[in-house]
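R.M. (postdoc): so does anyone remember the format we settled on? I'll just put the structure tokens first.
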């Protein structure tokens, strides 16, 4: 389909819009449309969303033998693909484990159970992507993960079991933001109207998704450290003071790298990102020092295993900080629109 450019007055150039496209989008004379200039210099024209679109609904069949993991993944898949209403229908009746899985995942997503009977459940999302702020959502997710990082190493240093348990429970808050952000990004990747409202393009979607995934993974490892702190207390053991100091010092250095990496992403600071990547070598040296000190102590195997697991968790958080920095460097070379 082609249109000839025509002159309108002394300085304006116009093209006509196809009639069938106008009818398809219920547009009339005087209505407002929006446009966006793409990286390849093409122009995308789309109708401005004046009224809220009809919510998308889906019905998912739950087999009698579907286990909790399968039920959970079906709901997550529907949520991430933008469905506002999800009806779950049991083959006969929903089992107790299936209902428990539905309640648990609904709590982690921005959803609510609106209707429920013996054979089915109706879930409804509480999100409105058009009013969402992607940067704000990721920043809030990061602030929770940062708080978890600081708290878990203070819990480690002071043997604060209550604080460690609190850190572990906050992992659900991270997951809630994580699924919400992925839903927004998938919707934006499929719909130019939402993408334009959020001021992002397909490459931005990839970069933000990478950032969200890395923050979520880092929080998982923080939660794992908290779990091991509780476990060590449960077996009546304590980490030797020298080893504890080394782990705390390494942990705080890693937290500093992690926070700087996320801030560098939003500030598009390439130089800082490269410095963070270089610091991984120092973290590896600290990790080796902890390893040597660990095996010099004649302690219970359970304690040694727990310390080794926490060592690995701390190192993984540092690796994710470096990965975030790599995303920042890569996106700095993105072609300008």
């Amino acid at each position: 389909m082609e249109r000839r450019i025509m002159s309108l007055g002394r300085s304006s150039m116009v093209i006509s819009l196809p009639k069938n496209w106008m009818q398809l989008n219920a547009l009339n004379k005087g209505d407002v449309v929006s446009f966006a200039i793409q990286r390849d210099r093409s122009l995308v024209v789309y109708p401005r969303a004046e009224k809220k679109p009809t919510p998308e609904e889906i019905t998912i069949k739950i087999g009698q033998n579907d286990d909790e993991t399968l039920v959970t993944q079906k709901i997550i898949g529907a949520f991430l693909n933008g469905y506002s209403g999800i009806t779950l229908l049991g083959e006969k009746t929903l089992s107790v484990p299936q209902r428990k899985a539905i309640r648990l995942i609904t709590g982690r997503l921005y959803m609510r159970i609106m209707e429920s009977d013996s054979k089915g459940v109706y879930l409804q999302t509480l999100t409105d992507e058009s009013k969402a702020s992607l940067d704000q959502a990721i920043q809030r997710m990061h602030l929770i993960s940062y708080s978890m990082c600081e708290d878990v190493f203070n819990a480690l240093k002071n043997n604060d079991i209550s604080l460690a348990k609190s850190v572990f429970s906050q992992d659900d808050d991270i997951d809630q933001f994580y699924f919400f952000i992925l839903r927004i990004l998938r919707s934006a990747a499929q719909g130019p109207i939402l993408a334009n409202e959020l001021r992002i393009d397909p490459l931005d979607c990839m970069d933000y998704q990478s950032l969200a995934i890395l923050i979520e993974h880092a929080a998982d490892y923080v939660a794992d450290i908290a779990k091991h702190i509780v476990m060590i207390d449960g077996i009546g053991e304590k980490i030797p003071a020298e080893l504890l100091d080394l782990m705390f010092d390494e942990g705080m250095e890693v937290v500093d790298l992690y926070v700087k990496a996320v801030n560098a992403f939003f500030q598009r600071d390439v130089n800082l990102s490269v410095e963070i990547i270089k610091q991984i070598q120092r973290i590896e040296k600290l990790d080796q020092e902890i390893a040597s000190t660990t095996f010099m102590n004649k302690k219970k195997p359970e304690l040694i295993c727990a310390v080794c697991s926490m060592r690995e968790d701390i190192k993984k958080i540092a690796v994710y900080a470096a990965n975030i920095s790599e995303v920042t460097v890569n996106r700095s070379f993105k072609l300008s629109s």
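R.M.: ...and that's the designed sequence above, right after the tokens. Also worth knowing: The first strand starts at residue 6 and ends at 8. The chain has a mean pLDDT of 88.
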